[in-house]
C-alpha cells in the first residue's frame, strides 16, 4: 500500500493524546515523542522555525509518521519511554539510558515489606505502577506509612525463627512505626489485613483510607490541633488527585501479541500491538481488501499469520476480541475485564482511528474516488440499474391531523443539496391520510420537474412501508414515469426497505454506507418536514386567535405580530401602544377584547 504524502498524513492526525514516531525513507525510526494533542504537536515540527540544528536535520529526513492513540497523557509518557528504550531512535537524546520508571513492590515473603524499586524481579512479588515520578511513589508510601505500621527490616520472619526468639524489636518499634512481628507481637492475619488495604490504595481504591483520614482530620480539628488537621488535609488532597495506574503497562502481561479488527463493506483494518514484559513495544495497522464476502473472523485469522511472519513474532499467546483459529501452538485469549481487556480496547481504538484517517486521506487525495465507491456500492446494494447520483426523499408531517404538510430533501453524490429542498402544503386531501398525501406530493413534484424540463432523480425514497410506496408508484404511473425512476419505501424501523410489488423487504448490513446514507436522507426529510409543520402550526394558532376578534383582518394581524413579535406582547400592550401600530379604532377593539371579562 503506497504511503500518502506527508501533507496528507499531517491533515488526518487525530486531536487525541498519544505517541508519534518518525521514519526515514528506508523505514528506519528517527524519533519517538509524546503529545497531549497529536495533530497540534506533530504539525508544529513542520510549521515552526527550529532553533536546534538537530531537529532541523531530523525534519528534513522524515518520510512517514506513525502514531498510537492512548487514553491519557500519563499513558503517552509511559509508552514513549517503552518505545525509546526498545528502538533507541537516533534523534532521541532523553530516555535512551537504561533507567526505567519506578514501581511499588509488595515483596513475596511472610510479613511483606512495601518499598519502591526500578527493577522487576520474577520472584512472585507484586509490582504496581509504573509511576511517572519518584515524587508520586514517595508521597504514596508516606501516606501508607502514616496509615499502616509495616516492618522495614529484611529479616526472614519464618514462624519457627519467631517462635525461637531469634530476633529482637528494633528502634522502629520503639518509635511506633512497626508493631514488632519479629517478636510475635503482631499476628500474620492482622498484618495481611493491612497489606490488603495497601493493595487497594496503590490500585487507586482509596475509599476506606480517605474515610479514615477524614475522621482523623475531624478529631484534630475538634481538639484545636489545626496544624495536624492541615497535614492530614494535604494527604487527602494528594490521595484524591492521585490517578489509578496506567493501562499501558502491566508487568503480568508478558510477551503477548494483541490483534483487533474494524471492517466496512470493502476493507478490513487490523491493528497489532506487541507487548514485551508488559510494555507496548510496537503498534502496526494493516488494510486488507475483501476479495469475497469474508467475515471479520476470516480476515483476522489471515492478518494474524501475515503480521506475525512480517515481524518475526515468537509470542506464545495472543489477545483477540473474539475466538479465532490460530493453530495448536498458540494460546488464544479473549479478555473479558481488567488490564487485558483494556489493552484490547486500546488496539481496537487504534484500528478505528486508522480507518478514519484512510477515509480522510482518500477524500483529500482523490475526492471523486470516495464518492464513486459509495455510489457503486449503493447501486449494488439496492439492486439499481444505474448509480443513484441524485436521490430524493419524501416525508409527510400531519401531527394530530392538523396542518398537513410534506417535505422533499435532495442528495447529490451522497451529500445534501439544500438549495433543492422543497416544502409542500397538502391541497387536495381532507384530514390525515398519509397515502393520499404521499400520492399528491410525488405527483406535484415530478409534474413540475417534467414541465420545467428539469433533471429527474435516479432514486426516489418514500418514508413509510408498502402503503406509502404504492401511493408514490401510482403518482409516477399517472405521469408516465413508472419504470423510468427507481422508487423504494423505508419502514419505520429503518432496516426494512420495500420495493414495488415485492412483499419481502430487503435488509441491509447495519454497518454499510448505503444504509447510513438512507438513514441520513430519512432523518433530514423528517427534520425538514417537522420544522415546516411546527412553523405553520404556530403561525395558524396565532392568526386564528387574533383573526377571531370581530373587525380584525389578516393584514392587521401581520402588522401587530411584525411589531410586537408575539401574541403575549399584543395581549399585554396598552391601548396607546396598539394605536401607534394599527390606529385608535382597531386598538380599542383589540384592547377591549383582552381586558374586559
Automatic annotation (TrEMBL):
Q: Which domain of life is it from?
A: Bacteria
- UniProt xrefs under CDD domains: GIY-YIG_UvrC_Cho, H3TH_FEN1-XPG-like
Sequence ranges assigned to domain GIY-YIG in this UniProt record: 15-93
According to the entry, every stretch annotated as the UVR domain falls at: 207-242
Q: Which PANTHER family match?
A: UVRABC SYSTEM PROTEIN C (PTHR30562:SF1), UVRC/OXIDOREDUCTASE (PTHR30562)
Going by the UniProt record, its keywords in alphabetical order are: Cytoplasm, DNA damage, DNA excision, DNA repair, Excision nuclease, SOS response
Report any Pfam family annotated for this entry. Answer: UvrC_RNaseH
HAMAP family named among the record's database cross-references: UvrC
Q: Describe, as the record does, how this protein assembles with itself and its partners.
A: Interacts with UvrB in an incision complex.
Its job:
The UvrABC repair system catalyzes the recognition and processing of DNA lesions. UvrC both incises the 5' and 3' sides of the lesion. The N-terminal half is responsible for the 3' incision and the C-terminal half is responsible for the 5' incision.
User: Where's the UvrC family homology region profile domain?
Assistant: 272-471
Q: What is this protein identified as?
A: UvrABC system protein C
List localization entries: Cytoplasm
InterPro entries xref list: GIY-YIG_endonuc, GIY-YIG_endonuc_sf, GIY-YIG_UvrC_Cho, RuvA_2-like, UVR_dom, UVR_dom_sf, UvrABC_protein_C, UvrC
- Where is it chiefly localized? cytoplasm
UniProt family annotation: Belongs to the UvrC family.
Amino acid at each position: 500500500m503506497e504511503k500518502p504524502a506527508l501533507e496528507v498524513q499531517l491533515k488526518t492526525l487525530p486531536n487525541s493524546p498519544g505517541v508519534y514516531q518518525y521514519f526515514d525513507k528506508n523505514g528506519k525510526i528517527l524519533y519517538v515523542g509524546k503529545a497531549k494533542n497529536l495533530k497540534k504537536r506533530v504539525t508544529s515540527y513542520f510549521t515552526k522555525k527550529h532553533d536546534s540544528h538537530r531537529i532541523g536535520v531530523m525534519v528534513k529526513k522524515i518520510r512517514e509518521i506513525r502514531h498510537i492513540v492512548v487514553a491519557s497523557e500519563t499513558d503517552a509518557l509511559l509508552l514513549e519511554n517503552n518505545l525509546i528504550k526498545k528502538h533507541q531512535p537516533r534523534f532521541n537524546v532523553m530516555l535512551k539510558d537504561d533507567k526505567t520508571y519506578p514501581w511499588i513492590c509488595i515483596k513475596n515473603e511472610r510479613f511483606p515489606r512495601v518499598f519502591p524499586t526500578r527493577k522487576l524481579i520474577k520472584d512472585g512479588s507484586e509490582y504496581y505502577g509504573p509511576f511517572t515520578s519518584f515524587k508520586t511513589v514517595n508521597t504514596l508510601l508516606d501516606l501508607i506509612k502514616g496509615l499502616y505500621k509495616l516492618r522495614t527490616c529484611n529479616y526472614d520472619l519464618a514462624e519457627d525463627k519467631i517462635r525461637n526468639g531469634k530476633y529482637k524489636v528494633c528502634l522502629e518499634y520503639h518509635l511506633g512505626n512497626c508493631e514488632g512481628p519479629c517478636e510475635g507481637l503482631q499476628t500474620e492475619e492482622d498484618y495481611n489485613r493491612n497489606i490488603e488495604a495497601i493493595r487497594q490504595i496503590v490500585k487507586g481504591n482509596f475509599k476506606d483510607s480517605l474515610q479514615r483520614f477524614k475522621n482523623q482530620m475531624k478529631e484534630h480539628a475538634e481538639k484545636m490541633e489545626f496544624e495536624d488537621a492541615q497535614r492530614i488535609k494535604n494527604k487527602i488532597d494528594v490521595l484524591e488527585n492521585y490517578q489509578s495506574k496506567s493501562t499501558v503497562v502491566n508487568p503480568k502481561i508478558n510477551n503477548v501479541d494483541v490483534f483487533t479488527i474494524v471492517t466496512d463493506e470493502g476493507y478490513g483494518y487490523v491493528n497489532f500491538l506487541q507487548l514485551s514484559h508488559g510494555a507496548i513495544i510496537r503498534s502496526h495497522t494493516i488494510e486488507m481488501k475483501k476479495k469475497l464476502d469474508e467475515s471479520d473472523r476470516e480476515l483476522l485469522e489471515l492478518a494474524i499469520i501475515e503480521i506475525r511472519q512480517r515481524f518475526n513474532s515468537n509470542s506464545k499467546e495472543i489477545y483477540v476480541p473474539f475466538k479465532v483459529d490460530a493453530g495448536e501452538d498458540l494460546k488464544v485469549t479473549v479478555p473479558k475485564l481488567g488490564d487485558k481487556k483494556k489493552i484490547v480496547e486500546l488496539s481496537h481504538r487504534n484500528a478505528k482511528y486508522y480507518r478514519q484517517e484512510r477515509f480522510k486521506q482518500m477524500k483529500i487525495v482523490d475526492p471523486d474516488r470516495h464518492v464513486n465507491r459509495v455510489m457503486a456500492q449503493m447501486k449494488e446494494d439496492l439492486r439499481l440499474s444505474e448509480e443513484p447520483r441524485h436521490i430524493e426523499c419524501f416525508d409527510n408531517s400531519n401531527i394530530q391531523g392538523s396542518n398537513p404538510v410534506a417535505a422533499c430533501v435532495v442528495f447529490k453524490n451522497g451529500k445534501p443539496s439544500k438549495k433543492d429542498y422543497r416544502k409542500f402544503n397538502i391541497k387536495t386531501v381532507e384530514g390525515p391520510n398519509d397515502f393520499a398525501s404521499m400520492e399528491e406530493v410525488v405527483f406535484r413534484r415530478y409534474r413540475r420537474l417534467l414541465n420545467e424540463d428539469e433533471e429527474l432523480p435516479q432514486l426516489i425514497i418514500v418514508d413509510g412501508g408498502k402503503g406509502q410506496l404504492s401511493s408514490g408508484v401510482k403518482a409516477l404511473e399517472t405521469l408516465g414515469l413508472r419504470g423510468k425512476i427507481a422508487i423504494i419505501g423505508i419502514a419505520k424501523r429503518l432496516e426494512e426497505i420495500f420495493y414495488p410489488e415485492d412483499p419481502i423487504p430487503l435488509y441491509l448490513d447495519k454497518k454499510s454506507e448505503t444504509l447510513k446514507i438512507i438513514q441520513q436522507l430519512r432523518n433530514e426529510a423528517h427534520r425538514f418536514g417537522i420544522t415546516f409543520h411546527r412553523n405553520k402550526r404556530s403561525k395558524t394558532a396565532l392568526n386564528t386567535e387574533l383573526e377571531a376578534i370581530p373587525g380584525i383582518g389578516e393584514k392587521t394581524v401581520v402588522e401587530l405580530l411584525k411589531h410586537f413579535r408575539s401574541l403575549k406582547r399584543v395581549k399585554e400592550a396598552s391601548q396607546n401602544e396598539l394605536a401607534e401600530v394599527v390606529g385608535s379604532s382597531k386598538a380599542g377593539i383589540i384592547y377591549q377584547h383582552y381586558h374586559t371579562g
